[in-house]
Amino acid sequence: MVGYIIYGRGSFNQLDEIIMPYRSDEKPMIFLVDHFFQNKPLVTRIPLRGRDKILFADVTYEPKTSQVDNFARELKEEFGSISGIVGIGGGSTMDLAKAISLMMTNVGSSADYQGWDLVKQPGVYKVGIPTLSGTGAEVSRTCVLTGPTKKLGMNSDFTPFDQIILDPEVTANAPENQRFYTGMDCYIHCIESLNGTYLNEFSKSYGEKALELCRKVFVERNEWNDESDDQLMMASYAGGMSIAYSQVGIAHAISYGLSYLLGTKHGIGNCIVFDKLEEFYPEGVREFKYMVQKNKIDVPQKITGGLTDEQFDTMINVSLGMKPLWENALGKDWEKIMTRARLRNLYEQL
Amino acid sequence: MVGYIIYGRGSFNQLDEIIMPYRSDEKPMIFLVDHFFQNKPLVTRIPLRGRDKILFADVTYEPKTSQVDNFARELKEEFGSISGIVGIGGGSTMDLAKAISLMMTNVGSSADYQGWDLVKQPGVYKVGIPTLSGTGAEVSRTCVLTGPTKKLGMNSDFTPFDQIILDPEVTANAPENQRFYTGMDCYIHCIESLNGTYLNEFSKSYGEKALELCRKVFVERNEWNDESDDQLMMASYAGGMSIAYSQVGIAHAISYGLSYLLGTKHGIGNCIVFDKLEEFYPEGVREFKYMVQKNKIDVPQKITGGLTDEQFDTMINVSLGMKPLWENALGKDWEKIMTRARLRNLYEQL
User: Fold this and answer.
1) In chain B, whose CA is at the least distance from the CA of A229?
2) Distance (Å, rounded) from C-alpha A18 to C-alpha A127?
């Protein structure tokens, strides 16, 4: 679990005070900021001291192990070691910050640690400040990375942030489409978790609350306001907690293939896939389509047109490798249900 | 926050494996068990190794600072230091275990640390396994103790458990009255939190979910079953999270006076008080009375009959000392609203 959680409007202003006890000697604090905020006012509010440094993360594509390794190597070359890293941005920035923290203290490449409980050393102190709500990356024990052979997170007890600051104010003014796609990541988490075979009362309670909050934001309310930011931030947190104790399902398993091959961002990728999953999640997909329409969002179509058999095979291999997701969705006998042919057919519809 | 949380039926069986990495040298693990379990089968399932010891906690009355100090002194005399402490029981046992953990490493008396952020050293490794659901003590950053001059917790960042094991199976077969009173602690947390001025979306989300689960258990269902245990355990956790980010209110402020003077246990004390608070929490108290009736529970009446003026003054002083609770319930001007005379009148009704 994340050790310390602050929730509240304006809590970003406490950042200097919060990280102060974790500054050691001359070692700098590193602020990894989503490149979206370059030249935006938020950057001027970062409490720089001494040799502190702001690094902008290019999150045009999903985070890569090579990107993590480069950041960590450059930080080691410049500073030797650092006091900590503060990630400020969406889910990709959260995951990059977590991964870089771990790679400041663990040897080799981050690709060596893609899997479960392979990380052996705690990372440096790490703080997450989400500026987009929905991924749940702020509370998860993973950081999803695209590596040379797979798209898989560094899942470990050392991966969660030490501290998160949940300030709905910093999520205001996010681009509408992006905000919707990322919010839907949470909605889809909930549907997958609540319809999964791994469900227990813990993940159910979190999943139901997150779903209710998503509905308040995207179904019931007619225009975006401060309360939407408050509620979607809480939905993201609760949705993340729900899947931490259960698992996601088919939309995530299929969209991992898309992002591995095409670099499709996670939020929009999930929307593209979920849109076609009515046979698996009938009520959820109907409500999703209603939210798309109500919020006047475009869900891209036909993005797999023209791909080769080999490319389809790559996506299918990545997707079928996500065994726990399929098992959660379809039960122990999932391999009999989701054959390669059936999955190919699904990919062709995207 | 609690570092590690396990939720699930049968998870008690993982205790040996969970605590293994925290055993060091020859230092024993101490199991502090609610005296209710003396000669009960649960005790035989405790994974004793080496010099490990089971201590039974007499929780007939609310935990006292002297009780904590005695436990800690005896453990130091017998073992020097210990690997950790595992609390198994209701809220009192949870609070005792947390306090003893802290007093193994902090000098002086636990009474020196009643307040906010006075504890300076982390305690020894501590695990909580609640066997009664409702108090939220399993997730709180306090451990409420009755000391020589006040009833107040050791509120600190070092107070929460390192690990909790939420196994609804171990709450089965709790005595019905006790289970109800403790469950109502959670219900009252929620009403006080949701009607408080400190509310934000974080505590609101947790409070609403906990309230919904309490209603499933005590209002909607007609007989107790496994799902009741599952849901009440989750309600307790969520209710505890809700007040961690807001505050309780009038019932708690008044019942603290009762337990300080009369040793009234927290759960039943809250019920005795809440029963008379219809003017402050009209809907909550009406629903509470319905649950009392439906579940065929006796709420004691006239327990303050025959007390002296001096005794009433003692209760009033303890109660009015709980400033954050009153401010949460009645706002900044609470002292104008809750006069000594009005509070005396409320105590006389109990």
Assistant:
1) B201
2) 10
Residue A299, both tokens: 């869900």
Chain A contact set for B166 (CB, 8 A): 202
Minimal Cβ distance to A201: which of B5, B208, B231 = B231
Q: Measured between CB atoms, does A1 come within 8 Å of chain B? A: yes
pLDDT value at residue A23: 97
Beta-carbon separation of A168 and B7 below 8 A: no
Contacts of B1 in chain A (CB under 8 A): 1-5
Q: A168 contacts in B (CB within 8 Å)?
A: 201
Angstrom distance (rounded) from CA B289 to CA B182: 15
Q: Which residues of chain A have pLDDT under 50?
A: none
Bridge partners of residue B154, in order along the sequence:
B115
Instruction: Considering only the beta carbons, identify the residue of B4, B205, B237 that sits closest to A238.
Output: B205
What is each CA distance from A124 to A19, A87, A103, B254, B265, in whole angstroms?
A: 12, 13, 9, 45, 44
Q: Do residues B129 and B97 make contact, with C-beta atoms less than 8 angstroms apart? A: no
Answer whether A239's CB lies under 8 Å from A189's CB.
yes
Q: Give me the residues paired with residue A127 across strands.
A: A86, A163
Adjacent-strand bridge partners of B34:
B57
ipTM of the complex: 0.91
Beta strand extents in A35-114 (DSSP E only) = 53-57, 84-89
Lookup: tokens for B312: 């009433």
Note the pTM of the prediction, 2 decimals.
0.94
Size of interface A-B (CB pairs under 8 A): 55
Give pLDDT, residue A173.
Answer: 87
Give the residue from B39, B54, B154 showing the smallest Cα distance to B96.
B154
- If you count DSSP H runs as helices and E runs as strands, how many of each does chain B have, helices first? 14, 9
DSSP secondary-structure letter at A212? H
Interface test with B, best of A165, A171, A201 (most B CBs within 10 A): A201
By C-alpha distance, the chain A residue nearest B141 is A4
Alpha carbon B326 to chain centroid, angstroms: 19
Which among B3, B5, B205 has CB closest to A209? B205
Residue type for position A124: V
pLDDT tens per residue, range B210-262: 999 999 999 999 999 999 999 999 999 999 999 988 999 999 999 999 999 99
Q: A119, A159 in Cβ contact below 8 A?
A: yes
